[in-house]
Specification:
alpha+beta; CRO Repressor; 4 strands; 168 residues; elongated; DUF421 domain-containing protein; membrane; 4-stranded antiparallel beta sheet; transmembrane helix
């Protein structure tokens, strides 16, 4: 078979199979990225690329690789819901960067976040005064959550690294 014809046939079939596999695997496969999701996505892309350009890799091998990668991702996410050890291995913890009017300089340095990025996140949330911000959290996917105003409870900050033990 001519290499271009091989690429066309294998490409279309692999692409369609990959879409079906991802749809069957559930929303978690396409969630916001953390390091684990990044690895899975790169592995799927690399497998698709190899299927498209390599005449030495069969369609069956490519489909098996897709299924294996998604199955491993399912096993890891299934396990992380049931085991804190697995959860801690594959997913980082959200981190408090700004709390009750104070930048948490040491934490920001550890996370390689500068004050300008925290201020940008505050502005992106339509807040002009840092005094109107209760907390800014660096989420596990690298995004910032800005919690406006000081409420009566810090319950939304449960599980965030760096939250003071005496809340309030």
């Amino acid at each position: 078979m001519h290499p271009v014809v091989h690429t066309l046939i294998i490409g279309v079939i692999s692409y369609l199979v990959l879409i079906v596999i991802i749809r069957l695997s559930g929303k978690r496969t396409l969630s916001k990225w953390n390091a684990f999701d990044f690895v899975v996505t790169i592995a799927l892309g690399s497998t698709l690329s190899t299927a498209l350009v390599s005449t030495e890799v069969s369609l069956a091998q490519s489909i098996t690789a897709f299924i294996l990668i998604v199955a491993l991702q399912f096993v890891i996410t299934f396990s992380s819901v049931r085991s804190s050890w697995v959860k801690n291995l594959v997913k980082s913890q959200p981190t408090l960067l700004f709390f009750q009017g104070q930048f948490r300089e040491e934490t920001m340095a550890q996370e390689r976040v500068v004050e300008a990025e925290v201020l940008a996140a505050i502005r992106e949330n339509g807040i002009a005064d840092v005094e109107a911000v209760h907390a800014v959290v660096l989420e596990t996917d690298g995004s910032f959550s800005v919690i406006p105003g000081a409420g009566n409870s810090d319950s939304a900050l449960d599980g965030v690294a760096g939250i003071p033990s005496s809340k309030g």
